Amino acid sequence: MSGAVRIRIEGKIWPALAKRAPQPVLGKIDLDIAGGSFVVLTGPSGCGKSTLLNIVAGLDKEYAGSVNFDQTDPAMTYVFQSPRLLPWRTVYQNIALALPEGDERLVRIPELLQRVGLAEAGDVYPERLSLGMQRRAALARGFVGDPDVLLMDEPFVSLDDPTADALRRLLIDLWKSRPTTVLFVTHDRNEAVTLGTRILRLDGTPATVHADTDVALARDDRSDRAAVMQEQQRIFG
Amino acid sequence: MESSAWRARLVWSAASLVALLLVWEIAAVVLDSRLFPGPLLVGKTMFAEFASGALTHHVGATLARVVVSFVIAMLIGSVIGLALGSSATADRFFDSWLIFFLNLPALVIIILCYVWFGLTETAAIIAVSINKIPNVAVTVREGARALSRDLNEMALMYRFGWWRTLRHVTLPQLAPFFAAAARSGLALVWKIVLVVELLGRSNGVGHQLHVAFQLFDVPMILAYAVAFIIVVQIIEIGLLQPIEARVNRWRR
């Protein structure tokens, strides 16, 4: 299974701004992420989870250390906290733009739209959709290019519970049919246990890994609220 | 719903226009002066000029100058605006240049161009363009400053490359700023073109106004002014507004 990631971060410091002294945000972080695993990054807000994700994404290059993949130039996609769809392109066009021009996978978009429940919304501009539907479109865009590594930064935040639950099931569904390494940031412990195979807890200033636990709950048992609660207790105390 | 609202607007515009003409005609009859002709006389003059072909010739010449200098100003102004909007250093350095050119009177630029380049077509076009470029640059600079970093990161992650990023991410964000620059630009450019023609061209609406002024031929002055207003309005309604509606169709 490809998609393994080796993270060796020595540190990351926000440079000094006008009146603010330089702020260390990440400390020493050594992580080996197995290919095909679903790793959840948790921790208090503002502790550096998104920063770590941006470093893995290659969007943030101002840090000491290295991030390596087990293949050269892996396909990597990012589902952001806000959907970040192009408002002047239709849902279909937004997803199609994630693929190179004339790519053979373009023909799969209608089926993918169907799976995420947007079969009727392909020709609609994103701002005419609800936030939940925009997030579905962003999810479809994240999967259409068969990513080896999928980065997700609180992609279901500020949705109502039933909508978020439906999207989580959809995510697991897509992930099962097309396994990929997922790095998923959330501060929602219930969501972490529902989705992850491994949960990392980031904390401190600068942030380091405070806990690293494998989730001992079978996939099929995760719709069982009591079992999820119990596992949540075990992992987070 | 939309078409009936449009019709209502049309009725209102027509009514107010008729009222204006009526007030104007009454004032002309009351004043009974050679120097204040009513709309009927102006209309007659306009028709006579049109029938002789003079009106089409001169309005055409002016329009050609407007189009050429407008396009040049939009292109150069946009490039400058984009450069200043995306580089803080360049912006800091060139900001005072921009303020200088923004405040340089149009007349000074026109006179200097004629003095330096002679009374030529090129000098006329350059003069009008230079007058307009700073306005376009300032407007587009605002747009470039407001470009979304979020969408840029998205384009980076999904490997858009520079051409797709420009076409699908950057230009659509700048479209409202281009539209604003184009609108205010057209209004400014055609006024300056008239001055340029008045000072140093032997055709165009500005030149005709100059001739009519020397003869104190007020009906002729108004005939050309009204003809030009009509042409500009046709461009505004027939070209600029549809383009604006098209680039904004995704808005909710």
Largest sheet of chain A: 6 strands, mixed
- Distance from N terminus to C terminus of chain B (CA atoms, Å) equals 17 Å
Number of E-state strands of chain A: 10
Summarize the helix and strand pattern of chain B as letters. Answer: HHHHHHHHHH
Summarize the structure.
Chain A is of the alpha/beta class and 237 residues long. Chain A has helices spanning 49-57, 91-96, 109-115, 131-144, 161-177, 189-195, 225-236; strands at 5-14, 23-26, 29-33, 38-42, 64-69, 76-79, 149-153, 181-185, 198-203, 208-214.
Defining key terms:
heterodimer, A: 237 residues, alpha/beta, Rossmann fold, globular, B: 252 residues, 10 helices
Q: What features would you describe in this structure?
A:
The complex is a heterodimer of chains A (237) and B (252). Chain A has helices spanning 49-57, 91-96, 109-115, 131-144, 161-177, 189-195, 225-236, and strands at residues 5-14, 23-26, 29-33, 38-42, 64-69, 76-79, 149-153, 181-185, 198-203, 208-214. With 237 residues, chain A is α/β, with parallel strands linked by helices. Chain A has 2 domains: 5-75 and 150-236, P-loop containing nucleotide triphosphate hydrolases (Rossmann fold); 87-146, no CATH class. A 6-stranded mixed sheet of chain A has the order 6-7-8-4-9-10, sandwiched between helices. In chain A, helix 5 (161-177) links the parallel strand 7 and strand 8. Chain A is globular and about 50 Å long. By secondary structure, chain B is an all-alpha fold. Helix content of chain B is 87%, strand content 0%. Chain B is built from 10 helices and no strands. Chain B has helices at 2-31, 39-52, 54-86, 88-103, 106-117, 121-145, 149-157, 161-200, 205-214, 218-247. In chain B, 33% of the residues are buried. Chain A binds chain B through residues 57, 59, 76-78, 80, 82, 84, 86-89, 97-98, 100, 125, 127-128, 141, 145, and chain B through 150-151, 153-154, 156-160, 164, 168-169, 172, 175, 247, 249-252.
